[in-house]
Amino acid sequence: MVNIEDIFVNVKEASRSILKLGVDRINEIILAVADEVVKDSDAILTANACDLSRMSPDDPKYDRLKLTRERIEDIAADMRNVARLTSPVGKILSSSVLPNGLQLSRVAVPFGVIGVVYEARPNVTLDVFSLCLKAGSACVLKGGSDAFSSNSAIVAAVHKVLDRYNVSNNIVQLLPADREATAALLAARGYVDLIIPRGSSALINYVRENATIPVIETGAGVCHAYYDASADVKKGVDIICNAKTRRVSVCNALDCLLIHRDRLGDLQQIATPLREKNVKIYADERSYKMLQGFYPSDLLFAANDRSYGTEFLSYAMAVKCVDSCDEAIGHIARYGSGHSECIISEDDAVAEDFLLMVDAACVYKNAPTSFTDGAQFGLGAEIGISTQKLHARGPMALDEIVTYKWIVRGNGQVRK
Predict the structure, then answer these.
(1) What is the CA 347 to chain-centroid distance, rounded?
(2) Residue 208's beta-bridge partner residues?
(3) What is the value of pTM for the model shown?
(4) DSSP calls for 283-311
(5) Which of 340, 333, 344 is nearest to 377 (CA)?
């Protein structure tokens, strides 16, 4: 039987050795793991097929769980991007000299050990490993039982590379898939310095409410698009379709379209590509009347209170007609999750007001929420998208997973 505390002790001890590797060695390891994962694609895909066989294809998590050769290549490409980035470790954030001659420097340093709790997303295993290693931290991974075979195969590939480089396997460890391991991780004070949950709102709430160590929330994405009175219809059609249908199971997918009453006549044109993708629409009264007879009856439903504030994670969305930009902003304030919101508008004053007033980690003008992603932002990869306001917000990459310490250099000064 695995002794969880022994894992924590070993990871903590191994974390202290990472800084001695040096940046060049760390980059070599990350690149080697990227190559190894591609090389081991057959074994990883076999393990992934085993996980997929236990999940219904209708489950919103199925697409997140699914790996393909192309997706593995994309994950490896993100890892290579991380290796090319400048390490934040050791960066001098500020410096000064006090009147007594003491030299003060505020320097970026690793957290030490980062624990990540996540659900059916095996790509997270490699994103977390590469970012944590580049930022000088060890990581403890607690994936869900639905992806345990996939995660185990991926970690095995990582460990093969670490063995080759004579680096301790304990800089990345995968915990058992049971609930007891989750509870132990959340209580691992003194061993784990930070917890980051990735998954459903239920998972995130559980971690926040039960952890005894600091947590950075990567909240659920209830994302809106506001189609303003001045919107360009072609831009709107493209943006809304991309935000909703590019990949429905991810947190940056569109959940609710808010359309200005003066442009309600555009709704059928906006809905045309959605109809082709068999997107279910839950529409308020005014929007429903506009779509009735045009949109397939088996895909069109009357909205209720539960339709708003729902992260659908599927080919479904809500639509609501609003009388003004202020009403749209108010709706987002009530139902949004602080993740990503966008406005489609050619009126700069209205758009700037929206960008100023909407409280979310990422706010877009004339671009879809599907861009909320660490790789798309040029960050290499991401360890999560933070919806909180302390320490980090939005896509979290290298700069967000380091902390800092004060280094004080003196020459015999004493305090009076």
Answers:
(1) 31
(2) none
(3) 0.86
(4) E-HHHHHHHBTTB-TTTEEE--GGGTT--
(5) 340
